[in-house]
Design brief:
The protein has about 325 residues and is mainly β. The protein has one helix at about 1-25; strands spanning about 30-40, 45-55, 60-70, 75-85, 85-95, 100-110, 115, 120-125, 130-140, 145-150, 160-165, 175-180, 185-190, 195-205, 210-215, 215-220, 230, 240-250, 255-260, 270-275, 280-285, 295-305, 310-320.
Length: about 325
Amino acid sequence: MKKNIFSLCVIVVMLSAVALVGCDRFLKIVTVKTVQYSNLKSTSVVLKGEVVSTGSEKEVEERGFYYGTSKNLKGAEVVECGHGGKGVFESTVMGLKPNTKYYYQAYAKGNDDFNVGDVMEFTTFELDFTLETLQPEVGSQGSVTLKAQYDNRENLNIDKIGFEYGTRGDFTNARVVYAENVGTPYSVTMTLSDSTYYYRALVQAEDSTVILRGESVTFDAYVHAAPVVTTGDASELTATSAHLAASVSGGEIGAKGFYLSTSSDFSNPTQYQAGSGLGTGNFAKTITELTPNTTYYYKAYVTYSNSGVMTEVRGEMKSFTTLSNE
């Protein structure tokens, strides 16, 4: 009887051992946790994880992180941290978009196992950096100086600064030109063929993982001839009004009008617009509500497009005296 009981115990022990060996394939021998991030900035963060168990081995083969802007981490980026034992591991991720929510998850791989931690999230800060594309300086024979300035309150490590430029507003055919140094303001002078161009400031920072662009500015790579403005004589004078005349020739004309002042040094003049349009020729304006028996000084003016920049041209100064009330 005792022999039979002993044999039964041996059989039970053997069956239990077989069951444990068979189930071991389904037990997770590696365990990893996603840990709270640190050093969050506008374009970077330190991701952290912890290997809780390495199973039967002293180290896991690989540790790392998945991260991305999708909560299910579809199409996520992968950061590999190499092999290691139990404990916290981390990796600095750069080149993130400012003011953007990201999701991340730690992972670990063993010889026969793979485990991931919970999905956690963070939102990067607003980037404290201002980049401004300035109006270019267009010279003769296609010479153009592109200009920009920036305010690096973020204290980014700037690698390169320059410009993107091309003849298409969507910058699909844009070229890049870099300035010689990374100071601000900065400029680049080049020679371009006759055409209308679009350009914007460009800054590359943090080992070129951060790329910033300014607003687009349009210019023509040739200088339009300035129009000629001739101030005419005043007529139809009364005690409180006068009819001013002028003419203009050449240029792509915008606004037209007159400046009027009671001072011969033409300080603080009053502007009177006399119309707008691309046409050249004569234009006039009747000025009312003047003071009787007063000498006024006036100049005609027009604005025109000079390489995409509206520029003002004035004619010579003339004068008239209103009539007395008597």
